[in-house]
Design brief:
Layout lengths: L17 H16 L5 H10 L2 H6 L5 H13 L11 H18 L23 H17 L2 H18 L4
Helix pairs in contact: 1-2, 1-6, 4-5, 4-6
Length: 167
């Protein structure tokens, strides 16, 4: 393999691991979610919160705690007093509480609010919206074996495209 020298800590056997390729795909998806303005913090986040870490955590209410983990590590949980709407304040209060508990066992890099760019981006591209989407994607990676499904789709697309070529 030509690129083995780029990752000297990995052996050729490591490259046969599905877990490695899932993480590579996950990091690429996260990079894409960041677009040009937030590409770097999304990649850093995906390296801090690996798929393996999420899978190994025994969390009740996994979806909500994943949100607490992602928003906590990203440094983007807002201050409770900055949220006006009552239901949103309660959500942020619960998110903050759960992050405080998860933080005790989290030992990777943390990001902070200044790491993220909001302007000039469209509101639908704000990092908070993209992070919420990232939580859904992480759940799909872990619960629906997204990696396998993508590989199967690529294989079937490849097979059908070679079958349809004229002789």
């Amino acid at each position: 393999m030509k690129f083995l020298h780029l990752l000297p800590e990995l052996t050729q056997k490591d490259f046969s691991s599905k877990e490695l390729w899932e993480q590579v795909l996950y990091e690429a998806v996260m990079e894409g979610l960041g677009y040009s303005k937030n590409r770097e913090p999304f990649v850093r986040l995906s390296k801090s919160i690996t798929l393996k870490e999420v899978a190994n955590r025994q969390m009740e209410n996994k979806n909500f705690n994943l949100e607490a983990l992602v928003f906590g590590v990203s440094g983007l949980i807002p201050k409770i007093n900055s949220v006006n709407e009552k239901a949103s304040r309660e959500y942020v209060r619960q998110l903050s509480h759960n992050w405080k508990i998860l933080r005790l066992t989290f030992h990777s890099e943390l990001l902070s609010a200044p790491d993220w760019q909001y302007f000039p981006t469209r509101p639908t591209n704000f990092p908070t919206i993209r992070l919420a989407s990232a939580c859904s994607i992480i759940i799909k990676f872990l619960s629906e074996d997204l990696f396998r499904r993508i590989i199967q789709t690529l294989k079937s697309t490849n097979l059908s495209s070679t079958d349809s070529k004229p002789n």
